[in-house]
Amino acid sequence: xxxxxxxxxxxxxxxxxxxxxxxxxxxxxxxxxxxxxxxxxxxxxxxxxxxxxxxxxxxxxxxxxxxxxxxxxxxxxxxxxxxxxxxxxxxxxxxxxxxxxxxxxxxxxxxxxxxxxxxxxx
Length: 122
Hints:
Strand content: under 5%
Helix content: over 70%
Order of helices and strands: HHHHHH
Structural class: mainly alpha
Mean pLDDT: 79
Distance between the termini: 28 Å
Shape: elongated
Low-confidence stretches: none
Number of helices: 6
Number of domains: 2
Oligomer: single chain
Number of strands: 0
Largest sheet: none
C-alpha cells in the first residue's frame, strides 16, 4: 500500500510543478515509447498464439475467459501455481486465451468509455 501511496503523491507533486506545455511534450514522448515497445510485443504474441487450440476448447474456453474477467486476480494466482508445479502445456493455452480475450475486450471498450467519461460534467 505504501508504494501506491508514493506513486499518488509523486503524481500530485509532478502535476503541481510541471506546466501544461512540458506535460504535453512528455506525453508525446511517452506515447512514442509505448508504441515502440507495444507493437513488437503484440506481433510476438500473435505469432505464438495457439488459435487452433483455442477454438478446440469451444464453450469451455469462453466460460474460462468470462470467469477470469469477472473474478480477476484469484484464477491467475491458481494458474501461476499450476504452471510452476505441473509444467502443464494447458496452462499456456488457457493463459494465452485469457490474455488475448482481455486485450480484445479492453481494446473494444476503451474508446467508448473514454468518450463517455469526457462528456461527464467535471
